[in-house]
Design a protein that fits this description.
This protein has helices spanning 4-15, 43-59, 79-90, 102-112, 128-136, 149-162, 191-201, 223-226, 255-264, 266-269, 276-291, 298-316, 338-350, 380-393; strands at 29-30, 95-99, 119-123, 140-144, 174-179, 204-208, 235-239, 249-253, 330-334, 353-354, 356-358, 369-373. With 394 residues, the protein is α/β, with parallel strands linked by helices. The protein is globular. This is 8-amino-7-oxononanoate synthase.
Length: 394
Amino acid sequence: MLPKKLQKKLDARKAMQALRALRPAANLVDFSSNDYLGFSSDSNLAQKITARAQAILKEEQLIANGATGSRLLSGNHKLYARTEERLADFHKAESALVFNSGYDANVGFFQSVPQRGDLILYDEYIHASIRDGIQMSLARGYKFKHNDIASIKELVSRLREIHHLDDQEGAIELYLVTESVFSMDGDTPDLLAIADICIKYGIHLIIDEAHATAVLGPQGAGLVQELHLEDKVFARIVTFGKGIGAHGAAILGSEALRSYLVNFARSFIYTTGLPPHSLAVILSAYEQLLESTNEDAPEVVNLCKLITHFKDEIQRLALDELFIESNSAIHCGVIRGNDAVKTLSRKLKENNFNVKPILSPTVPEGQERLRICLHAYNSKDEVTQLLELIKSQL
């Protein structure tokens, strides 16, 4: 029997029309997954990447189905070094350290790097994994308004005055974390302005590139590289479960940071490593990115054209006030109320479109939304049909 306190929380979720449940994947037109380029689900690309991954395993004479232990014990098979070297080179970083997931990477970083007395500044819409890491940290966290440069400046000024940072001589370190593309809204902060603030005040800048990896920047290297901010960022988190179409993540930074994480990041130390096959798929996907530039990579070109078409269509259909401004593959239409957004999502499903509702408390009450993810394998006709259907239901 479930404890009464837990049952009460479940009952409250039901009353809010916000109870989560696991359901089989729907065979519908995909406007829901994070497989932006189709590396995982496009049949031709997926087969090509899988075949190359098998060839990599054969080259390295690796047949194990699992890592067999943590990387500090028996799990540090030779594909790790090859993958991390590739990642560091591709992303123009001094080093890379692979984690089992983006969640593990963010929790491990924020649990271990900021120390007691340090201060963490974070965007109010930052990902849950970063929030969880901050909660586990001995440092104190302070949020600023979403993508608001004035709010960041005000917070930095206030904290510097409260903690007398000019007199501390490095005793208190400041960390600022944001995302290059936010997972719920698909919008982007002014990273150049944020980097300038961090340089001016000696703040360590961390950027989560989960939803930019493989989609934005030169050959999908991310927004940090598109803006040439590699040397101005203390750490970058890139993940492989979205545009790369695989699994896992990596933290990019200095060799010293890598060594520190190997010694102190608990989500790295106390978990079994990724199996060789996972690393081979990551390597294969990055080879696919390296094969062509953004100008002649059809999957990147198709996605960019589709994003432009989507934005043109929301203007044509006068839906621009419904949707949050975004130039990424993620587009969100705010439909207030869990019941209302679930009803619209269900109507879209009945018409063969898989679009997921994002409910409170995942987002603040009154900010419930449809989250539409665009992919290189979606067609312009599908986008138009989807938006016309949404328009007809409002």
